[in-house]
Every structure is written in structure tokens, then in C-alpha cells.
Design a protein that fits this description.
The chain is of the alpha+beta class. It is about 40% helix and about 15% strand. The protein has a six-stranded antiparallel sheet. About 35% of the residues are buried.
């Protein structure tokens, strides 16, 4: 009767296990990273919503708020007290620490993170929330959420996600109805969020609508997401 395994059989088995591990472990790690990004994004989005709702009980209904304030003044006036120990950082200091990119790899030039009147603050989990006044069309605030602060990759659609706040619509993902022209996704659909122009969530465009795509997909990064 044969007892145990031969050395050749053991080596073959180890080789097979190694091949399976090489295939599956990166997929598991990638899946975990995606879930972590979505979890942190949703958590910080909820933190802003909670601060807005809490502020309404003190400062009146959202529709009566002053949406012409700078990001800094809006933060100080309406929501700062409803965050637990926010750590603020200036635009100048942030620029020296972070070189932000669009999803297609070009340098990010939007005013959300670069505006002189932007305010930036870290939340308890190390995420970075940014507020900056939109003065070009509909009054409101550009809102950015970087789910891992100033850590890499600092890329729109990967760890940086864009939203818009107005007293009419509240906090919405950039691209949703209520987003100012030309950043709104007109007659929007999931396919248009992915392939609808320069703000689309794909690797050849800016990725500005990636937060909208994730929210559209019930807070999930699906297989066709341009990760």
C-alpha cells in the first residue's frame, strides 16, 4: 500500500497552489481596495449630510442658507461645529503636498482643490473634504472628497470624488441634475456617465462623473468601472 506522497507529487501540488494563489490573491486585494474606497466615500458623504441636517435645526431650512459664501465662510458658518475635531489645511499647503491627477492622467486644474477661497479639512478617518464657492453660474459649492487624504494616488475617480452643493438640491454627485452647466450630465444615463463627454468616468476623460456612477450603481464599484 502506498504511504504518503512522493516528492514530485508534493512539488506539483505546491506549484498548483502557487499558480492559484498568484491568480486569486491580486483579485482579492483589488476587490478589498474597491470596497474600502466605496465605504470611506459613503461614510464621508454621510458625514456631510449629517452636518447639514444638524445645522438646519440651528440655522433654518437649507433653502434659506447663503449659498454665495466662500468655502471657508460656509464651513465656519454652517457645518464646522458638527464635525468632530476637523483638522484644517490651507490650499497653499495642500498644493505643496499633493499633485492631483484626472482619471486620464493629466494634471488636475479644477477650482475645487485649487481655489484660493477653498477650505480643506481632514475627518477622523483621515479623509479630506474640500469646499469651494462656484461663482461662475448657479450659486453653490464644489465639494471634493479624497478618501485617503493626501496619500496616493490622488486621482479623480480613484480616491478623489467630486460633488456639488446647492440650497436647491443639497449635496449631489457632480453630473446629477442640479449640477451647473457645463458639468451637468444632460439627459443622463449610466452609459452617458461612462461615455458622455469630457467629464465621463472612463480612462480617456477627466473622471469628474465617477462619484455619480458609483452612487448610480447603489454605492458599488462594478466590474466595468475604470479602476
Amino acid at each position: 500500500m502506498k504511504k504518503g506522497f512522493t516528492m514530485a507529487e508534493v512539488l506539483i501540488t505546491i506549484g498548483i497552489i502557487g499558480i492559484i494563489a498568484a491568480i486569486t490573491i491580486p483579485q482579492v486585494i483589488e476587490g478589498y481596495k474597491k470596497k474600502e474606497v466605496v465605504t470611506r466615500l459613503k461614510r464621508n458623504y454621510s458625514l456631510i449630510l449629517q452636518a447639514i441636517r444638524a445645522s438646519e435645526s440651528k440655522n433654518g431650512e437649507l433653502r434659506y442658507w447663503d449659498s454665495t459664501l466662500t468655502g471657508h465662510d460656509f464651513f465656519e458658518t454652517y457645518i464646522k461645529e458638527f464635525f468632530s475635531n476637523p483638522i484644517e489645511i490651507s490650499t497653499a499647503e495642500l498644493k505643496t503636498k499633493v499633485k492631483r491627477k484626472t482619471l486620464k492622467g493629466t494634471n488636475y486644474g479644477g477650482t475645487t482643490y485649487n481655489g484660493d477661497n477653498s477650505t480643506h479639512f481632514y475627518t477622523n478617518d483621515g479623509s479630506l473634504i474640500t469646499l469651494n464657492l462656484n461663482a461662475s453660474s448657479e450659486a453653490g459649492l464644489w465639494v471634493g472628497i479624497d478618501v485617503n487624504g493626501n496619500q496616493q494616488p490622488n486621482t479623480v475617480g480613484k480616491d478623489t470624488f467630486l460633488f456639488f452643493f446647492s440650497t436647491k438640491k443639497g449635496l449631489i454627485p457632480l453630473g446629477y441634475e442640479g449640477t451647473p452647466t457645463p458639468w451637468v450630465c444632460t439627459n443622463c444615463s449610466r452609459e452617458k456617465l461612462k461615455q458622455g463627454g469630457s467629464h465621463s468616468c472612463n480612462l480617456t476623460e477627466s473622471g469628474y462623473w465617477c462619484a455619480a456612477l458609483i452612487v448610480n450603481d447603489n454605492w458599488e464599484i462594478k466590474k466595468d468601472y475604470p479602476w
